[in-house]
């Protein structure tokens, strides 16, 4: 293997160790991972779950798009839901992809060959 390829592989190993952090494998479970969200307490966790459920109810109700009147607090805290989505967004993994794209730039002249050789549909 060439020296540059060895350096690139070592860099990828270091980056993956540092950047692949959104998912943690579960021991004794093949290919199962967990993703964590941070909440202050059980009340905030309950609020997240309730707001997700209310958002789903509104999304399913094609006619009125309203939370049923039987639910006491009908407002949906969209900010809370978006905050959870941001926690789950794998920014470190995107950093890894960026570093890999720098290490292995795709030559646009060889792009068709790369996609066809690896049976990958070319993006439009």
Cα distance, first to last residue?
34 Å
Q: Helix count?
A: 5
Topology as a string of helices (H) and strands (E): HEEHHHH
- Radius of gyration of CA atoms, rounded to a whole number: 22 Å
Detail the topology: elements first, then pairings.
Blueprint: H1 3-19, E1 24-25, E2 33-34, H2 42-60, H3 78-88, H4 91-103, H5 111-117
Antiparallel strand pairs: 1-2
Structural overview:
By secondary structure, the chain is mainly alpha-helical. It is 54% helix and 3% strand. It has one domain (3-104). It has helices at 3-19, 42-60, 78-88, 91-103, 111-117; strands at residues 24-25, 33-34. It has a two-stranded antiparallel sheet. Helix 1 runs antiparallel to helix 4 and helix 2 (42-60) packs across helix 3 (78-88). The model has no long low-confidence stretch (mean pLDDT 82).
């Amino acid at each position: 293997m060439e020296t540059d390829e060895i350096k690139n592989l070592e860099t990828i190993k270091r980056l993956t160790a540092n950047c692949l952090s959104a998912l943690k494998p579960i021991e004794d479970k093949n290919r199962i991972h967990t993703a964590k969200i941070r909440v202050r307490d059980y009340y905030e966790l309950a609020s997240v779950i309730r707001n997700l459920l209310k958002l789903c109810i509104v999304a399913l109700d094609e006619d009125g798009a309203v939370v049923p009147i039987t639910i006491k607090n009908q407002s949906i805290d969209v900010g809370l839901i978006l905050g959870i989505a941001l926690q789950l967004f794998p920014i470190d993994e995107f950093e890894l992809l960026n570093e890999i794209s720098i290490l292995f730039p795709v030559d646009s002249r060889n792009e068709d060959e790369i996609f066809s050789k690896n049976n990958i549909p070319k993006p439009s």
